[in-house]
Fold these 4 entries.
Entry 1:
Amino acid sequence: MKYILFFFTTITFGQVQKFIPIDDDTHEFIEEVDYTLYYNKKPIYSFKTSKDTITFLPKDTFFDSIVFSKKFYRELGLNKTELKNVVQLKKIVYELNEVIVPNTKPNEIIIGEKSRFIKRFSTPISKDLNYGLLFQKEDLQKKLIKRLLFHVEKVKYKTKYKIKFFAAKEIPTPLSSQKSLDINDLLFESPTLILEKGIKNDVEVELESYDIDTRNGDIFVCLELQDYYDENENVIVPLPKETTKLKFQLSKLTYYYAKTYDIYTRESSTEMTNINAMVIEDFAYMFLKKPHKSTLVAPAIILFATKEE
């Protein structure tokens, strides 16, 4: 699927009307949506929207309403005067590869979120400590970690990686409600794990046998890339588009921390920033409103635990 960013600020509507359909939740482009133009409640023209760009209605077509339909989306009817630059469609049925569907075992507790994937935020697994999730002490107390579940886009090359848990502490930022992250001792490091070529979607790792101590504070969880390998087991450096990417999901929490990138100096920050908290504060300060839910995301990582006996 293709994702396209359009700027409509300079578009004017003359004889030709134009628009793009997007998903109401994720704000991602939807290709080939069926639409029908009506006049006096009678259909006069039917077609599909573009698969990769703006859709232009036929020039000088006289209509008073339009209906959009797409499999898995709610049908949308609009009067001509209601047709805007961007048409938002609401998804009502989700496919398995679009949402997290954890297979919970008896007596297990989910720590983290299970939501809808948002593909444009998929991010390569890194050798550096660039991003991860901070699980709070309150959610971890009196629990034994059993499994970890994460989700990846289709793996192009054999990928070796590790899972790491760090003791961490949130640090308030002066003159702001934002927080940075102080990462301390390494509490757990998995053996080298492998993602074989062709694997996609959910990846489950058993952690019960390691008896990870998560009782004494907040825990920062991340994946660390080791190397990529070709079919002859040679270490390689793939093109950016061929790297192994961790899926992201819509998030209602503020537990996603990452290093930020300065577009002017082209350098990464040395500290981890609470990304969603930063976005929420920026929107409140600059626009006096909350950000759209598609703006708040987090890596699709879930912990499974049981209560201590």
Entry 2:
Amino acid sequence: MLVESQISAKEYKYLILNLFYKKTSFLIFCFIGLLLLVMYLFNVNIEGLEKTPVYYLYFSSFFLVINPLLVYYTIYKQINSNIEFTEKIKYNFTNENINIDGETFSQIIYWREIKQIKKTQNWIFIFLKDKTIYIISIKNNTAQYSELENIISGQGF
């Protein structure tokens, strides 16, 4: 079954940030950052000192500002250094493998190399064991989606 997909740089940024912000570790970091900021602003001190330490503010700014900016910068660098992210890609799903043909590359992925397949309303994420992610847009391919889902579920995902 042949599926064509293309993702814009804006969509890629949104998807990766969305995946990152849904992780439990990131949510815990945000909670700790907010807690430290509130403790600093309201002079709540759990260490028994007269004044709230300034490092509460430093850690909260790291968790709430610097960490998300670093993630965004990393995504920006990925997009600018690798043109494959925004190419039109053809995925040919068979029972043995997935043939991926882009404008500047071609690859064969066997089903045993796939770690996880995650489906959302408009996207399918194929996670490989080597930390590679392939993103397939299904918002324009709704007719093919049921056939694609049958192939994927037939492989145990």
Entry 3:
Amino acid sequence: MISIDRDQQSTQIIDEYLTLSRSLIDKRESNGRIQYGYAVACLVLCAIDAIGHRVLEPHPNKNIRLDILETIIPDEDIKQKTISDISDFFRNGLVHAGLMAKGVFITGSEDKVFTYTNERVSGICLPKLLSLVENYWDTVRYQASRSSMRSDSWQPSMSFSSETQAASGCVTLTSASSGFIETPRKP
């Protein structure tokens, strides 16, 4: 059994998702294509979800916390419909079935983080999204290092037993301490 607390485990997992994503995005093919782009998209979207679970107050009806995008990308008007599209068209299919919705794409070069078709998200620019997520996570970690986390206020929105094995073979710990990180929110 792994003997680290929830904060350490969460931090390590998010750091690994982001570090591996950055490494793969920086190693472009000669034509500029992101090598292993689907895997990078999956890692980045899982990192966003993990950060959302780490930072946001628990919500009884939200098992996927991509709503943290409202804070991570302050310059875009992120609507609930956008978050649902990202979850439904990209994240869920990549994570659970190895597929994305028909007609959507991931790219390595666009002007905006998200591309829209008929007011629905149809594309994600991975390098831009990853940079925003990395910057936000750096801010969260810096703030956490400057203040203690409130262990009494954070509860995961999903519960797992300490015996639950993740698909990767890692153990999810629930009996360890956990903390809610206060971060600036979009007004």
Entry 4:
Amino acid sequence: MVASTAVQQIRRALGSQLQRQLGRGVSHPGSMENLSPCLKQAQAAARAQVDHDHVNEFADLGVFTILLNNRSVTELELV
């Protein structure tokens, strides 16, 4: 099973139990000693909001997607 598929299934099951939508980001693979960067990558992927129905993988996102995709039209016009 692909990691993002497993994450998707876990996210849906847990979200159903908690009765709320959960974040949806996956980091690059890493070790427990390297947990902080992995967590930050997963959070950035979740905030990118590329696809509301699927888990976003950090490795699949470009720099502009990570930085700009969750901005409003007004914020983008200011940039």
